[in-house]
Amino acid sequence: MKASWVELNLPILRANLNAARAALSSSSELIAVVKSNAYGHGMLEVAACAWETGVRRFAVAQLGSALRLRRAWPQAQIMILTVADPEDVPALVEQRIVPLIVSERQGEALAREARARGLLLACHAKIDTGMGRLGFAWDTAAPAIARLSRAGGLTFEGVCTHFASAGGPNRAFAQTQADRFRQCLAAAAEAGVRFPFVHMANSGGFLSDPAWDCNGVRLGILMYGYGNAAQGRVRTRPFLQWKASVVQVKCVPKGFPVSYDSTYVTEAPTKIATVNAGYGDGYPRLLSHKGFVLIGGRRCPIAGRVTMNLITVDVGAGSAVEEGAEVVLLGEQGDESIWADELARLCDTISYEIVTGINPALERRTVDSPAA
User: What is the pLDDT of residues 6-53, one digit of tens each?
Assistant: First the structure.
């Protein structure tokens, strides 16, 4: 039995990227965030399309992902958004991969390693202005960064912060973060440290306020067609479709129990279609009894529990569905569609978790059909 697969409609991705770039000033660049396998879409496939459209900056979470990108695009500018370790320094310098420095202690460790090897590590400083996750505390960052800059081993090519809630209707805290960030930059300049590349806006920040664009915008979920605000600078569309096949169809009577624990019992004679996808592929088990898939252009409810490799679907007694029929788990078919934000609501989560949860081992197929 073949596995389910993912299709990427590249013209839609190109349109998303071009729309975002058109909204930026000429002094600001797009940084394509392709961490977590490009939010489940396929890192190399997405990066290839972004590079083709003119994107030259990429952000990932781990060194391994950065090295894969570097092998494919020797001239790309690649940044790691999590914490690098001292043992990573030789590879970072040799492969021109830029880490974030998030504290004086971490910076000292990386700098010592760089100095011991006679290297100079290019990096960006990460300032915590209110996210509370990673970074120098905004009000004490400037002197710490100045000390690191004077000590040798590091060269600060950039600086960034991250909004906690820039995409919502209330932007007051995001504005507070932006103000703190600018105060930190001013204090760093007084201490003798100036950063050539400044970036603070993620997707929500980009949609909310052009004043937050700085030298670069880290385009994440918006690039993938989600996170669109009601009032934003651009509108993007999802370009990932997740598809599977019907592997068996059964005619069953009223009162027929389906799947584990017999939690679904048919209320009338019907047909049950078994689909070759399950939670082992990343399809959430939380969609048991409440999710839908598209078969023959119709929404068909999931019948019973989602299992590791299979889903059972009630297609109705009059259905003409046959084995081998295409099933859309995520995407559109005919006039119907199911997107990650809908599945996220059903699972009480966010669209990020739905798309990043798709098994990276599944085949990613690129489609160059025109964007409708």
Answer: 999 999 999 999 999 999 988 999 999 999 999 999 999 999 999 999
Say which residue the tokens 């090519």 belong to.
157
Q: Who's near 237: CB < 8 A, 6+ residues apart?
A: 12, 15, 16, 225, 371
Cα–Cα distance between 60 and 242 in angstroms, integer?
A: 23
Q: Given this model, what pLDDT does residue 114 score? A: 98
For 290, the token pair is 């409440």
Of the residues 35, 126, 243, 271, which is catalytic?
A: 35
Q: Which of the four pLDDT bands, split at 50, 70 and 90, describes residue 167?
A: confident
Q: What is the pLDDT of residue 369?
A: 66
Considering only CA atoms, give the Rg of the chain: 24
Query: Known catalytic residue: 264?
Result: no
Matching residue, tokens 């209320």: 267
| Residues whose CB is less than 8 angstroms from the CB of residue 311 and which lie 6 or more positions away in sequence, other chains included | 244, 274, 275, 277, 278, 283, 293, 302
Q: How far apart are CA 137 and CA 180, in angstroms?
A: 10
Contacting residues for 271 by C-beta, under 8 A, at least 6 apart? 249, 250, 251, 252, 314, 315, 316, 317, 319, 321
Beta-ladder partners of 251: 271
Using a 10 angstrom Cβ sphere, with 0-12 exposed, 13-18 middle and 19 or more buried, the burial of residue 350 is middle
- In the numeric block, the tokens 């979920």 are attached to 221
Q: Please identify which residue in the block is written with the tokens 């030298």.
A: 215
* Residue 156 burial (C-beta neighbours within 10 Å; 0-12, 13-18, 19+): buried
Per-residue pLDDT at 115: 98
Tokens of 344: 């996220």
Structure tokens at 200: 């603070």
> Would you state the pLDDT for residue 2?
81
pLDDT at 231 over 80: no
Measured distance CA(275)–CA(330) in Å, rounded = 14
For tokens 């050539």, the residue is 196
Place of tokens 């310098």: 93
Active-site residue flag, 260: yes
Judged on CB neighbours under 10 Å (0-12, 13-18, 19+), 82 is middle
pLDDT tens for residues 66-119?
Answer: 999 999 999 999 999 999 999 999 999 999 999 999 999 999 999 999 999 999
Of 250, 254, 260, 290, which is the active-site residue? Answer: 260
